[in-house]
Amino acid sequence: MPLPDLHAARERLLTGQSHANAEIERAIAAASSPECRHAFVLTDFEAARSQAAAADPQRQPLAGLSVSVKDLFNVAGQVSRAGSIVLACAAPAVRDSSAVARLRAAGAALVGRTHMTEFAYSGVGINPHYEALANAVATDVPRVPGGSSSGAAVSVASGAAYVGLGSDTGGSIRIPAALHGLVGFKSTQRLVPLDGTVPLSFTLDTVCAMTRSVRDAFLVHEILAARRVVRSAAPLSHYRLAVVPQLMLDGLDPTVARAFERSLRVLRAAGARISEQHLPELHEVAALQANGGFSAAESHAWHRHLLADHSARYDPRVLPRILRGAAISASDYIHLQQARREWMLRVDHALAGFDAVLSPTVPVVAPPLVDVLPGPQRDAAFFSLNGLLLRNPGVVNLLDGCALSLPCQAPDELPVGLMIWHGAMRDDAVLNIAQQVERLLLPQRP
What we know:
Blueprint: H1 6-14, H2 20-31, E1 40-43, H3 45-53, E2 66-70, H4 98-105, E3 109-114, H5 150-158, E4 163-168, H6 174-180, E5 183-186, E6 206-211, H7 214-225, E7 240-243, H8 254-269, E8 273-276, H9 285-288, H10 293-310, H11 319-323, H12 330-350, E9 356-360, H13 379-398, E10 402-407, E11 417-422, H14 427-441
Parallel strand pairs: 2-3, 2-4, 7-8, 7-9
Antiparallel strand pairs: 1-3, 4-6, 5-6, 5-10, 9-11, 10-11
Helix pairs in contact: 2-3, 4-7, 7-14
C-alpha cells in the first residue's frame, strides 16, 4: 500500500482520527527502521516530539508532521556540514535558514538532517564519508538513490518524513524523486530565499522539496515561497503540451521509454493536446557547460580558502570538479552569463506557444549501487551515470525554469519520473497541469 500523503495525515488530525504525537511516533519509528538506515546524518527525535506536541492543526498547515532537512540548510544550534568532513568543526548555526524558519512556523516537526552528496555536487547520491545509502523502494538489489538530495528521498519514501527539504542545482530534487517514485517540484529560483544554505552555484541553486503527491507539492511550495498558487479548474485539453525530441529522449532505457510512451497515450486519450516541438537549442547546453559552467566557477569561489588547507579531505570525485573553476577567468564567467541570457531568450521564444513540456525526468531507472561505489575502477561508470542523470533536469536550471517530476511507472516496473517543465515564473501552470496528469496516471501506479 502506498504511504499516505501530507494532506491525508492532516485530515486525520483535523477530524480527530489521529494526534500529532501519534503521527510523530510513526515517523520516528520509520526513521529508525532498516529501510531508512543511513538516510540521516543527524536525528533529533526529542525536539521533533516537542514540536509535534506544540502544534496547532487548526492554525498550522504542517501541524507537527515530520519534515527532514538536507544537511546544507542552517538549523539553529546545528552544524551545516553539507555532507563534508571539512565543515564538521564549523560553528553551529545561530539561526534557521529562511526555508527552515518558514517550515517551522507552519508547524513542521524536524526529525533530522539527511544524507547528501558532498557539497551537493552529484546526481548519483553517494558520499564516501558516510555509509552507502541505497534506494528505499528498489528491493531486488541495492540501487542508486539519486542525488544530491538522496537522504531526503529515502526519508520521504520510507515514511520518516512527509516533506524532504532539499536543493536543486541540476536536478538534485527531481532525480531522487524520479528514482523513488516521488513528487519533486523545482520552483523558479527567485521564489524561495537561498539564505542560510551552503551553496553549490549561486546562479542555479533552488530551494525546494520532495513530497508524496502533487497536492502536497502545492502546499509545501506555498510555505517555502510565502505565496499562494493560483489554482485552475481548466481541463487538460485547455493546455498545449510539447514533447521535445532533441536531447531529452536520447538513450532511454526500455523501462523509461515504455513508461513515457504509455503516459503520452493515456494523456492523449484524456484529451491532452500534445505535439512535437523541435528545440535545437538544447544541443548547445554541453558547450555552455564545457568548462564546468556556473557550478565549477561559483563553487570554486566559495571553496578556495578551504581548499588551501583541506583539499585532501574532499570527496575525490567532487574535488576535481570544483578545481575546474580555478581555470575560469572573469572574462569567461561574464561571457557565460551573457551566453546563457541569450540562450534563455531563444528557448523561451521557441516554447512561447506551449503551457508546458513533457519529458522523462531521467533516461534510466536506478542502476545497481555496486556499479558506482567509491573506487578508481568504477570512476568511469560513476561519471557516465552522473552526466546521464543530470542531463534532462539540468536544462531547466540553466533555463531558470520550473519543473515537477511525478511517477509514471506501472506496478511491475521500477520507478520512472515524468517531468513537466517550462521557463521562469510558469510555476502555477506547471503545478496545475501536474495535478491533472497525476490523476490520470495514478491507476498505473502501485
